[in-house]
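Sat 14:20. Reprocessing the chain from the morning session after the first attempt stalled halfway. Input below, unchanged.
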Amino acid sequence: MKHETDAPPIGREQIRAAMETLRRYKAGKANLERRIIENEEFWKLRHWDHIREQGTTALQTKSAWLVNVLLSKHADAIDAYPEPACLPRAADDEEEAALLSRVVPVILAQNDFAGVWSDNWWKKLKAGVAFYGVFWDREKLNGLGDISISRVDPLNLYWEPGITDLQRSRNLFHVELADNDVLLERYPALEGRLRGGSFTTSRYLYDDSVDTSGKSPVVDWYYKKREGERMVLHYVKFVGETVLYATENEAAPTGLYEHGLYPFFADVLFPEEGTPAGFGYVDLCKDAQRQIDLMNNAIVANCVAAATPRWLKRGDDGINEEEYADWTRPFVHVQGSIEENALRQITVTPLSGNYLSILASKINEIKETSGNRDVNNGGTGGGVTAASAIAAMQEQSGKLSRDQIQNSYRCFRQIVGCVIALIRQFYDTPRRLRIIGPTGEAEYLRFDNSLLASGEPTELDIEVTAQKQSTYNKLSYNEMAMQFFQMGFFRPELADQALAALEMMDFKGKDAMRRRVAENGDLRLRLARTESQLRALQDLIAPQLREAEPDPEGGERSARPRKQAPRMKPHRYNMIGEQERRNTIAEKARARAAASTQPR
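Finished this time. Tokens:
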């Protein structure tokens, strides 16, 4: 039993040791931080400070070829915004999977994950890595608590040097500056202890003047300890040498999260060995961007020199220099006679066309290296005018974006898995969620973790698809549905032929389409059986009806031919005109090009 006089597991000595570890981690990622800050300057078109070959000229031209690469890649990522779906691994997990498939998108929307996705993709393209943080925020919903998903700046996160997987780091630190007055208001124990510290985080080169004199670094320290057969995640929050919260100091320490993972997930663009970070498009193309701007600078300087006449003037020529340089004056006064060699214009030799060719090759180098060719942005080159050829080129060029977005989807699966684990652990109190049903109606669901926590934690497969489809994709799907209707795919008597055709096709919603066609075929068979039974019953009761029918003349009833049951005329299939049912090649090409960046 622990006595009151016993020292807590996490105290001043442990904090000092943690700070030494933090300083070592910071020194290990110094090159990464320097590169990230420099890349941010390239993004802001302020990279001339990093170009040493600028010489003495004051002219500094800037081109945005590299920025255009980032804009194009970011647009592809926004079109492929992810949507999760939970799939069961066993039959008894279907109810849980269906419920989570409806709840998780609501939690993502409440955290504005679309904005986090967009911001992190900017960071991923510039720095080569973006970090997501998935936490349980006890202050959300007026103290009820809820899941929080946010972007994490790589400059504020510190891991063990040399590791590739963030989860394998022995310790993980997140450091962020906070105002001293806010800290004192929330943690009165810090009174007189906010003297600052020797540890400072790296900062970007902001446009505004940022004063950090009234701020102190708040350290979130995460570490793992093995307890029995499992790894337990522990957490400490401290400022200076004052412990604000520590899971090991609790009466019954159980760790921070039951899933036992660091709540940070890395989305890497181009991976590197020995680090969980990577490099981005700025690192890939900034040397070519430097050379383009240097050549642009020289070309513009040559143009300015050639367009600005300069003269060699003899000292005793007697020409009024001020009047001669002023082109608005019709007369220039001179003293004495003017000799032919008194003034001589300086001739500027124009640059050769070879230099323009070199500049064009450097621009193409950025396009080819980044995969941001003209065809990606709707342009063509090399005399290609056929729509099918343009679509094939766009399909090939879009495979780079598909690969990078697929990597982001892997990170997204980890985020969704962490969200599900937090739901299972913390959603003890019921809460109401507004869920949009499959037909667009709003449904208000009362939800807690009773279903999830009723047995052993289940393993679910998380499927990720692109939620937002481009306009061309929607038009393509709508047009395909009209073609199916016009060709009779939904006619019950053609169900067998339609199913055979669908087996050879591949498109979004194929399974639902196949089920609907099969249901139409089954309905036709049931209807045919019902009609046959009705005819049989009619044949049985027809003689009785004839015998029961009285003769209007009172005589013997004459035999009448039995009326045949009316038969439905087969529906005549109206063939539509060739002009209506035929898609132009250009429309199909646009649809294929729009889908070229969507992960499959």
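Residues 323 and 329 are 7 Å apart (CA to CA).
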